Amino acid sequence: MEANNLQFVPVPGAMPVRGTDVNAIEWLTACRQMRDDGARLVALWGSERQATLAVHAALAARDGLVILRLPLSKEQPDFPGIEEMFPAANRMQRAAFDLLGIQAQGSDDCRRWLRHAAWDAATFPLRAQFPERGHDVAARDTVDDYPFVRVEGDGVHEIPVGPVHAGTIEPGHFRFSVIGERVLRLEERLGYKHKGVEKCFTGMTLIDGARLAARVSGDSAAAYGWAYAMAVESACRIGVPRRAAWLRALLLERERIANHLGDLGFIGNDAGLSFGLAQFSMLKEDLLRTNAALFGHRYLMDVIVPGGTVCDIEHNGRERIFAEADHLEKTVSLLRKVYDEHAGLQDRLTACGVVSPALAARLGLSGLAGRASGQAFDLRVQLPCEPYDRLDVRLATCQAGDVAARVAVRFDEISESLRIIRLALESMPLGEITTSLDAPPESAFGIGWVEGWRGDVLVALETDMSGRIARCHPHDPSWQNWPVLEHAVMDNIVPDFPLINKSFNLSYAGHDL
Amino acid sequence: MLHILKRIALTGIKTEPPPLPDDELRVSAQRLKAEVLGYFGGAMTIRHVDPGSCNGCELEINALNNPYYNLEGLGIKFVASPRHADMLLVSGPVSRHMEVALRRTYDATPEPKLVVAIGDCGCTGGIFGENYACRGRVSNIIPVDVAVPGCPPTPLAIMQGILSAITAQKTG
Known about the structure:
Strand order of the largest sheet of chain B: 2-1-3-4-7
Distance between the termini of chain A: 37 Å
Number of helices of chain B: 6
Radius of gyration of chain A: 22 Å
Number of strands of chain B: 7
Distance between the termini of chain B: 56 Å
Structural class of chain B: alpha/beta
Strand content of chain A: 15-25%
Oligomer: heterodimer
């Protein structure tokens, strides 16, 4: 019924994915129809293969991921913009122009996005003929002059913050327009961390790419590691041993718990309850030390690789994780009681930084922030791959959409991840944990799609004639959620911004690439 | 409130002993006089700058202030402005888009000052190296006293780097 009878070709792999080439009219109608059917935009990116530029969109339909590829003309590489259907597309379209020179038509906002002063407007880093060297001149002492939107009127003033922030956080610029302490408007300027990640991928072997994928956003190393491995396995048309899939889920859930613990501590701290930070940061540290002891890395980098995982779990490790899960469950439920009953804390968290379910749906808020605003989407629930298809994952949602809701979803997800970890340890099948990657396929395409702790992480991969990476696009759910943060802050007071920002805890590195 | 007090009493003191300084981590000869370093040893302030990391190093810097490492217990604390800082702790490779901000942060830090670069990227450029958007290691942009490798370096390694920078170099 979808998209005027387009002929889709299934993309093999762990997730249900299908794709097709479209023309400009089909591109628009397909997007419109799928939006009407409740699909959401997962990612939009550009590519250049054998001198053909193209724009790709990945849309999450009820029954799987749909990839549309629209080849563009060499003389005028324009495509119909889709931000009218999916507002989150705006920044992705602007980034696609900065990197590849493909222009979205019909957009009100065509300002540059990822490009500051490192390269000039007429050259495009992801094009084949982009020069390797000779970019030294522009960057030196050139300050990026970005046309922020001005708010004018009596008593309105601006507070520019960043890129270097006051705490230990990543760099980005926030431009607040305020009256007194009330925020009228927040405008974000990102791209400070852009360090050519996608260009680095090009030319790497499929094996080497895994190390880079784990470092797209360090706090999501397991999610990106798995998504990248899944994309490679999809392109290579191979499956992984069942035990490896279960181990990957165990690692992903440990990463989810670690990040949620850290965030719960910082949210408490930002609201003045340093007791929370001390307690939660100890729980997180315990978990990281277990990671280092059992899997060789505190943040699980390079543990998930194409073909499987690098280590298995022994009997002692199993016992340690069970004991840790018991301790965590007990302590976290005690701390939840403290948070819930603390009037001063609840006063800060409740009705702060609200994103209503209607706004969340309109803007495409994703991941845990989306679930806290009534967006009932979790890949582990709706489109479960092995082992989630056996685990019957419970969705954690809230309707309130405030900081308190994002706290509640984190607490709920910790409990659920602990249940998953216990179940995984009990029912994990025995056997191998890796399968060999045979000769990498020429000009193949693969997709990896994983529900990381922040939201769904996508990796789209194309190989070249020699089986190396021709194009790898990693997509972080922060792309969808950064623009919504601008709305969440409106009408709140400036001193609540750190708290609201922390309750989203979005990635700069994963976005800026 | 009772829950909180009970929990604090039950938790007790968790802080572990700090590591010893390591001269091997130095990348340049000691620039500050021993007496100056002596002053830093009692009360040090750090401004962290992330000029392009993957955010892995930030996780470990945050861990430095958990009760196990308790960096602040050694009289070393993080401050909100480079103008209040004695040391810059710089994580990650330097993206071209952060080059100006990093220079300005360095210039805003009053003399005498120290710079500790952390992570494989901070030491060498790491997996990102140098390209159209990335300038590589921190010492390509500002002078560095101590560099701490690791991907990311553990909190103990970062702590060791900080302590090495403020301890007078052994001579001979």
